[in-house]
Amino acid sequence: MTVAPYRPEPAHAVPPRRGGTLRVAAPTDAAPLDPSCAPASAAPFVRLHTRQLVTWQTARDVRDWQAVTPVPDLALDVPSTWNAGLGASHRSYVFHMRPGVRWDTPDRRPVTAYDVVRGFKRMCNPVRPSPSLAYFATTVRGMAGFATAWAAATTRRAADAATLAAYQNAHEIPGVFALDDETLVIELARPALDFVQMLALPAASAVPVEHDAFVPGSPEATAHLRVNGPYRVRRHRPGEWVELVRNPAWEPAVDPYRRAEADRVELRLSDGTGRAGGPAGPAEVSAAPAVGGLPAAEPVDGGLGWVLDPYLVLNLRDPVWADLRVRQAAALAVDRTAVADLYRRHRPGVPVRVAGSLIPPGNAGYGTADPYPTPEGAGDPARARDLLASAGHADNPPLVLIHPHSGLGPEVAHACAAGLIRAGLPTRAVGLADAAYAEALRRPGTTGGWQLAVAARVPDWLEHNGRVFAQAMLQATPVPGGANHGGYASPEVDALIERALDAAEPWRADAAWQAAAERAVADVAVVPILHRAPVVTPRQPDRVDGLRPLPAQGYAVDLTAVRPEVDG
Questions:
Q1: Phi and psi, residue 224, nearest 5°
Q2: CA-based angle 73:290:495, to the nearest 5?
Q3: Is the predicted pLDDT of residue 48 greater than 50, yes or no?
Q4: CA angle 519-412-521, nearest 5°?
Q5: What are phi and psi of 519, to 5 degrees?
Q6: For the segment 151-186, what is each residue's pLDDT rounded down to a tens digit?
Q7: What is this structure's pTM?
Q8: For residue 373, is pLDDT > 70?
Q9: Which of 262, 284, 303, 516, CA to CA, is 20 to 30 A from 48?
Q10: Are 527 and 358 in contact (CB under 8 A)?
Q11: Among 427, 424, 336, 330, which residue's Cα sits nearest to residue 385?
Q12: What is the dihedral of CA 51, 56, 58, 62, to 10 degrees?
């Protein structure tokens, strides 16, 4: 792997001062929510206030392999056969809790193995289940059954905090249990090459008993978070801004991978329409929205962790897509080259490639097969019209193509709509604020209906990560979560996904991931448009210092290590 190094911090004649206020511009859904409901993309923000069994470390040089390998966080060690934490069957993990980690409660109670068990249960909550739940439900013994039973019980009872907590505390996940305060056991339904990487996701955070008093993901839960990381929420206005201050219960001596350089962190949230709220003052660090919305950034010159950005989701619940030929026409209609030119114009220097495959380069299962190539990637409207004619496709109301207001979402949507219209598929682009867009993807039946959506997929981790594309985007499962926004269901693809999940050798898993992705693209479950290189945010020496990337979290900045300018 050849990756350009991230520039190290310059030497200082005088040690930099600690303190000040760090202001961060962030998407609305990236606020430090209840970690049980936070998406993987919110991990850099969740890192400010929560901890997991394992975590990621920053990198001065992104070529360092350690930057993409989980390191122990709440756990003293990463279980392995060498330290007797991983059983011979590779299905039983034993974690020993790090002593000295405490909650910011009045008594500064220690964080225990029972808090991690509660976190696993809470990610299954039926009101706002974790976007990462499908990963765990197909891996941890008994977790899928726990989640589906809880959802079934909720249809017969109220979903208030007390009722949810009563069910959670009266039932167990068979494969997740504490032997005592210091010892946690997690048993898998099958060995998983990527299980340790999954444990670094926000969903796997420890959760204190105080959170039982609030509905998961509610504004009240955010306002009353009990934390174990460097910062805690002091005040917030839902959807507009969050202010965090140092957590007095946090001890740097027992947190090897986080810091607390700023006295205060202000997240100024934007809904993607240009509206942002928060305390006065310019943002010093920007966080990228979902689709094409990169801040000023440097590309990582290498093959690791490329992004599928953008692609089109087809809402396969809509009868317009029942005929494969109509879906094929949509795949042939999109002018990928026009979208690539758009990215190059707005994000000069960031490498992009016209995509024919679902899994991008530098990710497990990547392949180059393109079932619907067009001349120069510019689309083939004539062939698309022929397919529509052979399918007897009648005039229908225009297709609704939803997109986020933020980033390049509007420009990408209009470029895609233009190609679809040329091919004989009238299309209307509809922009949504980021929160409404995310909800439309999560629950398409509640938003008035749409047939197409502009989306992006960033890998949730970088090693053994075929599932973050193929499983998340393609598997038909009754467990909520994941990124199968179009409702794709294929027994053949599901069988390939199961084969990949069962594989003990990475090369076998990669072959199955690739086969699943190729089959789904041939079915036109989605329309890949571009593969984009990952980027790191460059330093801004006049405003802040200490910007170090977290490669395994999309090269996001470790906000705990950023030093804002301090007067005097």
A1: -115, 25
A2: 75
A3: yes
A4: 5
A5: -65, -40
A6: 988 876 678 899 999 999 999 999 999 999 999 999
A7: 0.90
A8: yes
A9: 303
A10: no
A11: 424
A12: -160
Cβ proximity of 219 and 135 under 8 Å: no
Beta carbons within 8 Å of 145's beta carbon, 6+ residues apart: 174
Give how far Cα 313 sits from Cα of 207, 327, 387, 498, Å: 34, 11, 20, 23
Residue 409's alpha-carbon distances to 128, 272, 445, in angstroms, are 26, 10, 22
φ/ψ (deg, to 5) at 211 = -70, -15
Q: Measured between alpha carbons, how far is residue 226 from residues 85, 97, 201, 446 in Å?
A: 29, 19, 18, 32
Q: In what order do the strands lie in the sheet with 264-270?
A: 231-237, 241-246, 264-270, 21-27, 285-286
DSSP string, 388-453: HHHTTPPP-SPEEEEEESSTTHHHHHHHHHHHHHHTT--EEEEEE-HHHHHHHHH-GGGTT--SEE
CB atoms within 10 A of CB 169: 12
First-to-last alpha carbon distance for the chain, in angstroms, is 44
In angstroms, rounded to a whole number, what is the distance separating the alpha carbons of residues 150 and 144?
A: 10
Would you say how long the chain is, in residues? Answer: 568
Query: Measured between alpha carbons, how far is 440 from 93 in angstroms, rounded to an integer?
Result: 37
The 3-state DSSP composition of the chain as helix, strand, coil percent (nearest 5) reads 30, 20, 50
Query: Cβ-count burial of 158 within 10 angstroms (0-12 exposed, 13-18 middle, 19+ buried)?
Result: exposed
Contact partners, residue 553, CB within 8 Å, separation at least 6: 43, 44, 47, 56
pLDDT grade for 555, boundaries at 50, 70 and 90: confident
Residue 473: phi and psi, rounded to 5, are -95, -15
Alpha-carbon dihedral angle through residues 320, 322, 324, 326, given to the nearest 10 degrees: -10
Q: Is the pLDDT of residue 273 over 60?
A: no
Per residue in 52-86, pLDDT (tens digit) is 999 998 876 666 666 788 999 999 999 998 888 89
Q: Which amino acid is at 5?
A: P
Residue 170: exposure state from Cβ atoms within 10 A (0-12, 13-18, ≥19): exposed
Instruction: Give 202's contacts (C-beta < 8 A, 6+ positions apart).
Output: 35, 36, 38, 39, 40, 42, 43, 46, 50, 52, 130, 132
Q: How high does pLDDT run on average in the chain?
A: 87
DSSP result, 326-389: HHHHHHHH--HHHHHHHHHHHSTT--EEE--SSSPTTSTT-----SS--GGGS--HHHHHHHHH
Tokens of 249: 């219960």
Q: Which two tokens stand for residue 251?
A: 């001890």
* Contact in structure between 259 and 19 (CB atoms under 8 Å): no
Helix axes 491-502, 506-522, angle to 10 degrees: 170
User: What is the enclosing helix (H) or strand (E) of 178?
Assistant: strand 176-180
Q: How does residue 347 score in pLDDT terms, banded at 50, 70 and 90?
A: confident
DSSP H or E run through 144:
helix 143-154
Structure-token pair, residue 106? 């009045």
